[in-house]
Amino acid sequence: METSRRTALLHRLEGRKNGFDAWFETVKGKLSEDAAGNLFIMIKDYKNASMPHKYLDSSANKIYSYGLQRYPVLNCVSFIYEEDV
Length: 85
Known about the structure:
By secondary structure, the chain is α+β, with helices and mostly antiparallel strands. The chain has two helices and three strands, in the order H-H-E-E-E.
């Protein structure tokens, strides 16, 4: 990857982290221990999910999950897309 593209990507990621940190500071004092714990568990579950993203197909009024998974037969990564039930 070119240095300038890498630098731009790093700046964009740092901006997202800073935005999250700023948001978290606004809610940190408002969460009870139970709510903060539940939020932490939800974030951890999201990070560990193999298909963490959702997409709403508004024309079919259906929600789909998608993500990446390792496909052992071909020893590669596969894009997975399926309807939520």
